[in-house]
Amino acid sequence: MQHIVFSSLIALSSAVFAAPQTFDFKDPKGVNHAKFTLDAPLETISGSANGVSGTLTIDPEKPEATSGTITVDTSSLHVDNAMMKEHMLGAEWLDAAKNPAITFTVKSLKDYAMKDNKATATVVGSFKLKGVEKEISVPATVTLLPGKLGDRTGGKMQGDLAVIRTSFTIKRSDYGINPKAPEDKVADEIEVSLAIAGASPTK
Asked: I need a labelling partner for 72 at 20 to 30 A (CA). Which of 1, 41, 99, 100 fits?
């Protein structure tokens, strides 16, 4: 989701980058993904989504100016049970036809710190799901990998990577996702985790 996330890009210090740098999270390898879990007393539902895209821009001299949006294609959400997947994407649940994207737009960063090539921060942003938009704060780490884009792409592209990892919880009822569903079978809390790599190709 969320993301996701997008936090510690602040951590790309000015010692490494002299100018604002944009990272693209549309992964040509299709590896970027989000995971979600609803752990109810009678049933645990787990799934994933690989339709991740978006960009984040960081100015190492003004980390508070970090900006961008991470998007997940709603239709890319997947669970193994075919009927459950159909219900999940249907009107009562996520209504993917009317709400094709889940987005997190960065508003601000706080509590950030950098050690070696890894940064931590809390990202405050606008999270939009099923047409409902709420401000949330999520913890995230970013690992900066200068010059490693070539290793990830088999030499097809050269440049830098930023790997973002985050985990957070939202409530199904907050976003109008079938609020009538019994919570002993479908948990109200949705645990979300995101692991994505953004590319900044050498121009």
From this structure: 41
Q: Is 148 helix (H, G, I), strand (E, B) or coil?
A: coil
Q: Does the residue 2 lie in any domain?
A: no
Strands 33-39, 77-78: parallel, antiparallel or unpaired by DSSP? unpaired
CATH number for 131: 2.40.128.110
Q: What is the sign, positive or negative, of the torsion defined by CA atoms of 49, 50, 53, 55? A: positive
**Predicted model pTM:** 0.86
Please tell me the distance from the alpha carbon of residue 148 to that of residue 141, in angstroms, as a whole number.
18
Express each pLDDT in 83-124 by its tens digit.
999 999 999 999 999 999 999 999 988 888 877 778 888 999
Q: Which domain holds residue 144?
A: 7-201
Pick the closest to residue 108 from 132, 81, 135 (CA basis): 135
* Residue 1 placed within a domain: no
83 found inside a domain: yes
Task: Report if residue 70 sits inside a domain.
Answer: yes
Number of domains in the chain: 1
Interatomic CA distance for residues 139 and 127, integer angstroms: 14
Give the count of beta carbons closer than 10 Å to the beta carbon of residue 114: 18
CA distance 4 to 22: 16
Q: What are the residues facing 68 on neighbouring strands?
A: 56
Distances (CA, A) of 177 to 19, 50, 74, 109, 193: 42, 21, 13, 28, 19
CB-count exposure of residue 10 (10 Å: 0-12, 13-18, 19+): buried
